[in-house]
Amino acid sequence: MNELETALRDMLEARAIAAERPVDLLGDVRQRARRLRARRQVLTAALSAAAVLVAGIVPFSLYAPNHFASSGPESAPGLPATLAPKILRPPAGWYPVFYRGAEISVPPGWLIQARPGCTGQRDVVYVAVVAREGCDRLLNAIVISPDPRAAAVSSTSEINGVPVNVTSGGGFTTYVLPSLRIEIRASGPLTRRVMSTLARSALSVMLASGPRAATPANWRWHEFAGIRFAAPANWRQLRSSALTPPDGCGNGVPDQAVEYNTARELNEPGCGASPPDVAGARPDNEGVLVAHGPATPAVPARDVSCRTSRGIRICAGPVRPYDVALDLWLSRPGAGRSVLMEIGLAGTGEAGRRILDSIELASPRGG
Amino acid sequence: MDEEFGLFVAARSASLCRTAYLLTGDWQAGEDLVQEALARTYLRRRRLRNGSALEPYTRKVLLSLFLTSRRRLWRNELPYAELPSQPVSGEMDEVTDRAGLWQALGELPSQQRAVLVLRYFEDLSEADIATMLGCSPGTVKSHASRGLDRLRKTASVIEGWPR
Fold first, then answer.
1. For residue B148, which residues of chain A lie inside 8 Å, CB to CB?
2. Per-domain residue ranges of chain A
């Protein structure tokens, strides 16, 4: 121990001794415990009611991207202001977790739970569910829920361009995002750092309503199975013949590449031993996979949201909070089988939005 | 209230308040933190393995409350209509803080302050502090190192402390 450390130790001891006063906290603790218990009972009742409500709503709201709006006329080269991508990059090594229009980034290893349950002494992000009361104490807990409840607002601010109303109570700081109709409750020592990464999710940038995003002049056009679309020029072009189903356990889309897939059979990797959903466990790729072949899955019968653009019917499939890609089924008039396009949900969503808005029918000679 | 918990509060309140005081820099605020931590522990006491787990749990809650409420504590400071004519603890400052360490400690980020108090007042190891803070021992080491570095710089300005 060096001189400074010794001085610090001496000073702390002297301070503690000098400041000490007689302490009798038992009565006060008893009162506080009563108040806390009463508050928790009220909170538990409210959470139970909310859980019932969420249980009813989530299966529909989570799997049906009902904000898949139709595109308007083509915009100027930049993205519309309402689609401005994320401003701040999260700390290195952190991973994004999104729900609907909102995205936060968390350190690797945090559990991501989409159903209520206790995690013990683990950091956790509860997505679209309510953290269960009575769990052991959590280190850091983030609860992302749909449809915020009205509450007294203690301060209003903006985080990375997202308007936020902040309240606190019950051990949580609550961030209501009125424009995204989402509520985030956060508790734990990393609350402020995690919430400083709040941004619009790539998914919301890709699917938001608004004018069509222009295709940059230096992008490269691709034609596959009668569909034409553009992607960044530096993305590689790959071909593959094995396809993992969109809801399977594969790696999803390639990174910084466009992959043409003509699989004849579905590749079904074993999912039984897959690790729990933790931040960073899944690939975070920005790329495109287009599939058209005997094994390409058909448009799901439910939980899809469709629109028609430039003569192509585009149906967006269900997106779960920890999915790595947006699945789109593209149907050409008169063509039998749809083309499956998977666009990676990494990054700001800007590239994905431009790719999506560039989709059109290929010329008769192409494809 | 359970007899066991009552005995625990009676026996350990003073120690908890000392730690809380060193964390917050204010006895009243520290006592407030301890009350809140004890109340939360009381409500969770049946989930703890046995009586010996009461203190570690309470200390962890205390630390967590301190780290999450530091800003709130600052906002809750009472403004004086007039500045006090004498320093509130002038004599103690003179004796124990000639190097300006107390003042410098109060200016550290809460994580660094917590690590230094736990390391040099509570004599906890880096591994134990890491468990309490929910971070890695490397992070604790980093907080301690940065905290000491800042203390050294500040104190050296005030007192010519050797760097």
1. 4-5, 8
2. 89-196, 203-361
